[in-house]
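Model the whole thing, not chain by chain.
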Amino acid sequence: MKFSGAAHVYGDNIDTDRIIPGKYTKTLDLSTLADHVLEDLDPEFRHKVKEGDILVAGKNFGCGSSREQAPLAIKKAGIAVVIAEDFARIFYRNAINIGLPIVEIGSHTIQASNQIEVDVLGGKVTDNTADTSYKSIPLPSVMVDILKHGGLIEYLKTNKDYKL
Amino acid sequence: MGQTISEKIISNHVGHPVSPGDLVITHVDGVMATDTTGPLALKAFEEMGGTKVFDPTKCALILDHAVPPPNERIANLHKMMRVFAKEQNMKLFEIGEGICHQVMVEHQYVKPGDIFIGADSHTPTYGALNAFACGVGSTDLAATMMTGKIWLKVPESIKIVCSGKLQDGVSAKDLILFIVGQITISGATYQAIEFEGEAFEDMTLASRMTIANMVAEMGGKTGIVNPKGLKLDYDFEAIYPDENAVYTRTFTFDVSTLEPQISVPESPDNVENISSVEGTSIDYAFIGTCCNGRLEDLRSAADILKGKRIKEGVRFLIAPASKSVLLDAMSDGTMQILIEAGASIITPGCGPCVGTHQGVPGNDEVVISAANRNFKGRMGNPNSNIYLAAPATVAASALEGKITNPKNISHEV
């Protein structure tokens, strides 16, 4: 599970209201989520994001609401993987459950537009522009398994139950 | 090794002693989803091969986030939830029954010692009841509805000890705002918080719910108020921590001189003493939500507003936390006082807190709200500013048209 792409970089404590405002969450037409992703944080984001880009944030990314529409909006916008210093925990579970890879790397100096390579399961993030690399904090084994299945739906379709 | 309340509850469920960091699969005692998280959960349930929920008596759907529905899209999501509930022979709480967390507690879907999984981030509210309750997203919820189980990493626990009694006119909301300000929005990430000390011991269940509710604003996995002094309508076996339980951190605060607190835009942990923002003009006051929409909250507002009128030019909305709260507030005269003072009453439910409808603020308007979140755009308009405070402070501010310390309003108690 390896990705490479350009970084979009934001700060600390990006809450789920800023990722996808509550007024857009009540829908099953998930493509509409991408139309409003990060709207109140950076209205330009949805115009500049390209398929395979990488979202990079600071501490506590995804705090606030339990809305799974937050990682879904990011995934539907084309983001391949989210890197952060750390994640709020409901967002963390939700992202893995919908098959959006996320990587926690602690403090970093990744700048906007830098070219980043991510080896999710190998636990390594490389900033090719700055020529630096980071080790990521490993996911719990059950989450690795869920992610390998592409999310919790496929995991349970296959396994019928949780396995530790 | 001694155990915290959370560790005891999880151990009781899995049948062996657990320690922080352990990965466990546990059965759950109840699950619920709302009209924000439910539709996606039902879709996921079907996609993962679900046919029957694990136990229809332990699963509930609640229409509360956008009620009554503001448009056909949401009306159809509500319809989808009704159809599912009927097929599964499970309970759906209709429009106007109230906010999920209030309804789950009132209808005893959650009890002391339970593990409860809710598809809403404020599910830790049930920590008021001595339960281990966690918020999840839609797909986790679907999986739990199907299997009756969830996997968890046993959280570390942190302890918050508040000594001293709160002053008159200072409420549980002021206390939890203070605590959120101290711990910060990420200060308890994936940890279980235990609240104990004199300040909590004579709190009502409603006040304890206000405390546990804002665990979400510190990143906590769950938060449990020590059950010392907890009174419920039914008998229960309280779970206390062992004396030698291990806490990653312990915070001790003397709260006997705490003043009313206020959270200033745009994060709940931006908390100050009210004196630093007193006099700020407001356009809109709101009392309600899973944090502060209960009878004691409405009564504290009515105490301030009895026989008075709110400031001309200010609007004042109230969304009772449940139909039962609304009925109680009608029968004891609280609603009469609030409506005569100038309040508009909206359907019991989440109301304008989630920014979908029922009271979106205009550009540059200032809102004072008894809710739990003031993130940018939270109430539906990123160009408005939301201050969070106790219901008494909201009422006093509606009365004066500016942020006002309720202690400065003369009123009968």
